[in-house]
Amino acid sequence: MDKKQPSDIDLNLAKYLDHLKLQGKSARTIEGYKLDLGQLFTHLRDSFPDQEISLREIDLLMLRDFLRWLSDKDDVNRSIARKMAALGSFFKWCKLEGLIETDPMARIKRPRFQKKLPHFFTEEEMIVLLRIPDTEDKFGIRNRAILELIYSSGLRLMEVCNLKLSDLDLRKGLVRVLGKGNKTRIVPVGKPALDAIQSYLAIRNGFVRGQDIDSLFLTKSGKAWDSKQLNLILMKYIALVAQQKGYSPHSIRHSFATHLLSRGADLKAIQEMLGHARLSTTEIYTHVTLEDIRIAYNKGHPRGKE
User: Which residues contact 253 (CB under 8 A, 6 or more apart)?
Assistant: First the structure.
């Protein structure tokens, strides 16, 4: 006989996901929260197969048992922290809505973990990467324009995929970007990227199939990109430059921020260009540059390693 998930949990989870949509959360974030919360409710259903657990019955011990179960199955610390964020947000909303009297997550401490330093390319490696696309054909011209724009303006892949022709101001050297949470920002575009984009625009009609759409970058079939498609294309170039595993198109965005900071750019300005909601997210790049300084010091100072 099929096990039945508590009906009030089903109902209120759906309402909560609708609430996230109204808040402007991205589809990816909402799907992540749905999966994380669903994992908790499935665990509770499996732990109490002979009874229906309602929202009001979920307590501190149940949540601790769920987190212990995650730890035992070797979920990484960062993954557990993400799931705890989803649980914390959901139960806080439940309390505000009057669905529960006390928030069972309020007494659970979030795990501390060391921030993983991002992979980034050196300036020399970026020069090599940007020169790889063969500009003798239209695909190389398009792909170089995309690479140049990501490095020039620090865009995420999804942001590149969402760009419209009207988002680009070639005369002023600016691009309007629709980022996470449907927040819009304006970012400068450097001359090499502008030149590469203009070269692409000159042959863009070669990608149009049937009705022209307003997406800036078009696929071989004349459609807008999705991030998975674009990732596959760009990884072919990145694999030729990366010295180790862990590099991706997002590493170009990391390179944008790291190179700006190492050349003296203001951290707050970098935060605005990256579209980070919190400065603490951007501050990871200070750790990257400080690590470079430490390595250079140990190599060059006569007493650096003493």
Answer: 150, 154, 155, 156, 274
- The verdict on whether 287 is a catalytic residue reads no
Rg (alpha carbons) of the chain, rounded to whole number: 24
Q: Which residues are within 8 A (CB) of 176 and not within 5 positions of it... i.e. 6 or more apart?
A: 167, 168, 169, 184, 185, 186
Range of the domain at 30: 7-96
- Whether residues 80 and 140 share a domain: the answer is no
Name the active-site residue from 45, 180, 185, 223. 180
**Do residue 169 and residue 254 come from a single domain?**
yes
Smallest Cα–Cα separation from 255: which of 158, 183, 170, 147?
A: 147
Q: Is residue 276 annotated as part of the catalytic site, yes or no?
A: yes
Same domain, 190 and 242: yes
pLDDT of the residue at 294 = 65
Structure tokens at 99: 């669905």
183 is catalytic: no
- Dump pLDDT digits (tens) for 6-58: 458 888 999 999 999 998 888 888 999 999 999 999 999 888 888 888 899 99
Q: Are residues 82 and 226 in the same domain?
A: no
Asked whether the whole model's pTM tops 0.70, one would answer: no
Q: Which of 25, 204, 253, 254 is catalytic?
A: 253
Q: How many domains does the chain have?
A: 2
pLDDT beneath 70: ranges in the chain: 1-7, 74-78, 111-116, 288, 290-306
Q: Does 263 qualify as catalytic in the annotation?
A: no
pLDDT of residue 5: 44
